[in-house]
Every structure is written in structure tokens, then in C-alpha cells.
Fold this sequence. Notes:
Blueprint: H1 6-15, H2 22-34, H3 44-49, H4 56-59, E1 67-70, E2 79-82
Antiparallel strand pairs: 1-2
Amino acid sequence: xxxxxxxxxxxRARMRIPKCVWDFHKIWEVQIYxxxxxKGNSTPLEALTGDTIDILKWTEFEFYDLILxxxxxxxxxxxxxxx
Length: 83
């Protein structure tokens, strides 16, 4: 059984993330971490591949944010809320 620290439990409670998707949050967090500069002038992923990293799609939404979506593109009234 995994032991969660108080800080991690508080973050999960604050963001209202269910336990069943918490592992996906950890993967998302690591992917953000590898695409941002921490020490030096390049990201870890950039140092590994040599390519400049575009993080636009990673910064558009936070993990488990509320979003609006439409099942049918033509139906302006049929919007739904999702995560």
C-alpha cells in the first residue's frame, strides 16, 4: 500500500481529484517537469533530444480542470461540462 504524505493528500483534496485518476496526475506532473527549465539553460527533455520543446498544450489547462465540450460541433446549445 502506498503512503501519501500530508502535502500530497492536501493537494489531492484541494483539487478534488479522485483516487482512481491520481496516478494520471503524477504522470502529467512529471511530463510538465521534464519540459520546464530548472537548472541551466535547457530543459531535461531538450538536453536529451536536442529539440526545442513546445509546452503550449501542457499549459492550456491544469490537470483535472473543468472544461466545456460539445458532442456536436453544429449545436451551440448542447454544451456539457467535463474534466
